[in-house]
Amino acid sequence: MNLSFSEEDLKFQDEVRSFIAENYPADIKNKMDNGIPVSKEDIQTWQRILSKKGWFAVNWPEEYGGTGWSITQKHIFQNELADANTPTLVPFGVSMCGPVVYTFGSQEQKDRFLPGIINNDVWWCQGYSEPGSGSDLASLKTKAVKDGDHYIVNGTKTWTTMAQHADWIFCLVRTETTDIKQQGISFLLIDMKTPGVEVKPIITIDGSHEVNMVYLDNVKVPVENLIGEEGAGWNIAKFLLAHERTGIGGIPALKREIRRLREITSELPLGEGFLKDDELFMDKLNKLEIDLLAAEYSELRTLAAMSKGGHPGPESSILKIKGTDLQQGLSDLFVEALGYYAHPFMSEDDLISNEGRIGPDFAANVMPHYLNYRKVSIYGGSNEIQRNVIAKAVLGI
Amino acid sequence: MDFSLSEEQLLLKDSITTFVDKDYLFDVRQKSIKTELGYSSDFWKTFADLGWLGMPFSEADGGYNGGPIDLMVIMESLGRGLVVEPYIPNVVLAGGLVSRLGSEEQKQELLPKIISGEIQMSVAFSEPQSRFDLNDVITSAKKDGDNYILDGYKAVVMNGPSSNSIVVVARTSGNQLDKEGLSLFIVDPSSKGVSLRNYSNVDGSKASEVTLENVSTPASSLLGNEGGAFSALEEVIDLATLAISAEAVGIMEKMNEITLEYTKTREQFGETLSSFQALQHRMVDTFMAYEQTKSLLLMCAAKLTDKSDDAKKAVSALKYQVGIAAKHVGEESVQLHGGMGVTDETNIGHYFKRLTTIRAIFGNTDYHLKRYSAL
A residues 100-139 near B, CB within 8 Å? Predict the structure, then answer.
C-alpha cells in the first residue's frame, strides 16, 4: 500500500496548477469568487481555453481528441480545477453526448457531432425525464413515429438543465410500445431550432432559472439523427447513467468549500470574538470534515481499482449518496454560520449593484445554494434509486 | 391532566382555519409577497376586525386578555396557511414591550393603533456580531440634556420596512455583553440620522438594516427604565419564541399532510409512491418529529401560562426541538416531492423556506441547547 502520488504525478499537478494560474480569466474568476452567476459566454470561454490546450475532453479516447491521461492524472486535474474555483464544466456535451456518439455512433455521426462538442461550438442538453417519468425513467412516453426518412416526435421533457442555452438536445424517445417498457426506446439527437420545439423555464425555490420544460410538438427529425439501432436506447441510457454518476460526488469542490468555511469562522464576528470560538459549531464542521475524508478515500479506492482495469460499478452509487449528503450538509452549515444574515434575498442585480451587499460579503449565495442543493439528492438518479442499486448489485438482495 | 383547548380557543382556531382555507390562497399570498409592502393590508384589516391583533393585550389596554395558549392557537393556524403578515414582529414583539414597559401615555398612544391595525411596529434587537445573544449590544444611547443620542447598527430588523416606529435596543451603560445597561427607545424611522435599507427575506417576509447615526431622541421616547430593559426583552422574546415555534408546528403539520397526499397520487414503477415501504417509514419519522414538537409546544405554553420557574428552560427545549424537527421535516418533504419539491410554483418549497428561516429566528439549535444547559 502506498497512498501518495508519484514524482511524475506531482510534476503533472504543478503543470496543471500553473496552467490554471496563467490562463484562468480574471473577470470569470472574480465572478466565481464573489458568487456572481457566470454567463453562458463565460462558461464557453473557459471551456475553449481548456479545449485549445487539449484538456477539455479529458476522458475521451485519444483518437477523438482525448488526453490519454492515467486515472490518477484525471483525478489530479479535476482536483485542481475545483481548487481554483473554476466554472463547473457543462457535462451534457463533453461527458454525455460525446461518449455516446463515439461509442455507439456511425463514422458519419462521429465526424458530424464530435468536433462541435470538443470545440464548444454546440451546446447540448439532455432530454430524459418527463412529467410522469422521473425515477421510473423507462416509463417515458415521448413518441417518435417513423415517416419516410424522418421521425415525427411528440412529447414533453422536463428538468432539462440549461435548455435555454442549448443548440441541440439528446433525447430518449419511444419508437415502439412493447410489454417490457425498457424495450422500444431509442436515442435521438434533435436540433433545438426545429419547428415544434418549445422551451419554457421552470423557476426553482432559490429564484434561479436553471431547468426547463421542453415541449416537442410534431417535431420532424431526420432518421440519420438516430444513434445506435432503433429500440436500443435503454442500453445507451444505462451506459450514460454510469457516466453521469462518476464525479457526481463533487468531492474536490467540497474540499475547497469546507476550507472556505473554516476561514470564514475566523472572520465572522461573534460577541467579542469570532465564530470559531463557538464549540458546538466547530464540532459540526469537524464531523463533516471527517465524513468528507472518508468519502474522499472511498473515491480514491475506486479510482485505484479502476486504474487496474476495473469499472466503476455500484461504487459510483455510494459516492453519489455520500457526496450529495455532504454537499447538502455543508450548504446547511454555511446557513447556520450566518444566523439571521442567511435570510435576506439578493437578486442577481443586487449582487452587482453599488449599494453593497447585506451582511457579510459571502452571505448572498448561502441560502440560495442550500435551497438549490436540495436537488442533488433528487437528480441523476435519486438517492432512493441509488440505494436500490446498491441493495441489488452489492448486497445481492 | 387536560390538554384540550377551551371553548373560546376552539372558536378562535376555527375562525383562523376558515380564513386560511377559504381566503388565504397560495397564489394570493405569492402575489402579495411580490408587492412593495410584502403582505396584504386588507388581510391585516381582517385580522384587526376579527380581534386577532388584540388577543395578547389586557382588557385595560383594549385587548382580549389572551395568554400564551391563545397565542399558540393563533400562530399554529397562521403557520398552516403560511401567513406572511407580520404578526410576531408587530403584535408580539413591539406590542409586548410597549404593554409591559410603556407609560400610560405610551400605551394609550400605541396599543389601540396596533390593535386596530392602524400602525406597524418592529423591534431592532440584533446586531451583526450578536447572533442570538440579546445582551450583546454595541449600539449606544448617551444622555444629552433632555435627549438621548443613538449611534449604532441593527441587523435584519423584521417588519422594519412597514414600521411607523421602531423599538431600538441600545446600551446606556456597561460593556458589550452586559445584561445591565440596556434601554429601549421608540424611534421614528423618519428621524434625522436614521436610515433603513429595506429588503425581502427568502421566506417572503420583509426586513431592514437600520443605521443610527447621531440620532437625537427625546427622553419621552425611552420605553421603561433606563438600563433595565433586559428582563422584559428576554420575556418578550421568549413569548415570541413560543409563537414562532407554534407557527413551525402548524407548518410541519401541513407539510406532512401535503407530502402524504402527494405520495398517494404520484405513481412510479406502476405504484403510488406511498406504497413503497422505504418511503412509508420516512413519513412515519416526519410524523413523529411533528408529534414530539407539538408535545413540547403544549408543555411550553402551559409553563409560560403558569409562569413556572422552569418556563425559560421550557422555551429553549422547545426551540431546540423545533430546529431539529424543522430541518428533518422540511428537507424530507422536499425530497419526497422529487423535482416538484424544488419548483417555485409548488407550495411545498415555500413552506420549506419559511420553516428554514424559523430554525434561526430567536436562536438556532446550538444557541438553545447551550441556554438549556446553562439554565
Answer: 129, 132-136, 139
| Same domain flag for A265 and A348 | yes
Rounded to 5°, angle at Cα A381 from A378 and A384: 70
B-chain CB neighbours of A358 within 8 Å are 197, 199, 209
Q: Is the ipTM of this complex over 0.95?
A: yes
Between positions 84 and 113 of B, the ones with CB within 8 A of A are: none
Catalogue all structural domains in chain B, each as residue range(s) with its CATH number: 7-119 (1.10.540.10), 122-227 (2.40.110.10), 231-374 (1.20.140.10)
Same-domain pairing of A193 and A311: no
Contacts of B132 in chain A (CB under 8 A): 339
The torsion angles phi and psi of A105, rounded to 5 degrees, stand at: -85, 165
Is the dihedral angle over the CA atoms B320, B323, B326, B327 positive or is it negative?
negative
Residue A168 is part of which domain span? 123-231
Q: Domain boundary at A202, A231, A260, which?
A: A231
Cα(A210)–Cα(B297) distance, integer angstroms: 39
A188 neighbors A225 (Cβ within 8 angstroms): yes
Q: Which of A139, A207, A280 sits opposite B370 (nearest CB)?
A: A280
Q: What is the pLDDT of residues B218-246, one digit of tens each?
A: 999 999 999 999 999 999 999 999 999 99
- Between the CA of residue A281 and those of A275, A309, B360, what are the distances in Å? 8, 43, 14
Say whether residue B178 is in contact with chain A using an 8 A CB cutoff.
no
CA B335 to chain centre: 26
The pLDDT tens digits for B296-330 are 999 999 999 999 999 999 999 999 999 999 999 99
Of the candidates A204, A270, A387, the beta carbon closest to that of B343 is on: A204
Q: Mean pLDDT across chain B, nearest whole number?
A: 97
Say if the Cβ atoms of B202 and A368 lie within 8 Å: yes
The Cα–Cα gap between B269 and A136 comes to 6
B29-57 pLDDT, tens per residue? 999 999 999 999 999 999 999 999 999 99
